[in-house]
Model the fold of this input.
Amino acid sequence: MKKLAFIRRNNESHWVGDGFPVRSIFSYNDLGKEISPFLLLDYAGPENFPPWEQRRGVGAHPHRGFETVTIVYSGEVEHRDSSGGGGIVRPGDVQWMTAASGLVHEEFHGSEYAKRGGPFEMIQLWVNLAAKDKKAPPGYQNITDDQIPRADLPSGAGTVRVIAGNYQGTRGPAHVFSPMNLWDVRLTAGARAEFSAPEGWTAALFVLKGGVRLGSGEIVAAAEMAVLERGDEKFAVTALDDTTFLFLNGQPIEEPIVGQGPFVMNTRAEIEQAMDDYRNGRMGRLAAHG
Done:
């Protein structure tokens, strides 16, 4: 069985723009190599917003060298980018944006959600690209809830929504550049489930709701991430309550990680080039609203 390497938590939140209260669980500055190909996990919420009139969110900003994956659990996110991608990301939906060679995008609360307010909860991941893919054309995948297949766990323990990769023959719809699994797992209180993940790949689970006891006995509570050792293939969890967790699992990209803000490349010179390209409009621009 895989053993626990460490548990990561962050009780301090900060605002991203004026729309997203976020806890940064890890970033490329601290765990980029340990959890490669994943570079960052931001957990927004859970929050309850009142109705409002003005737009709230994050205005136009650039990215290069990686992908952003936004998983909405409640609320709505409205996205558009300079590659032409965009749309409303609703509960259960996943937005998979490939920045790669560079783009400019913005993210706001959906206009209909803003009018009514209510619960808001989402995760945003940054997923690294290998050097050979960092200059690929930008792309956008709007993956709706009904496009994400579900697999039942044995003995009625719960379900797995397969966003990317493969669970027991059920394949996720996301196009990925490097091998990985991204599973949204729901467990019934008291249920035990056993999973397999390739030996040598990174593996981590982030609990959004409830809590689990690992096979080795450690407890992972809500808003905590357990990073597992890369040895062995199997791991087991027992749900202490009705539980939701996100499982991150990927083949490491064994390349240098050099990042600054919204750019993650392999060398400092590439970061300087990204900054110059953005300043000079070579990542595109967003037209004004209206």
Remarks:
- The radius of gyration is 19 Å.
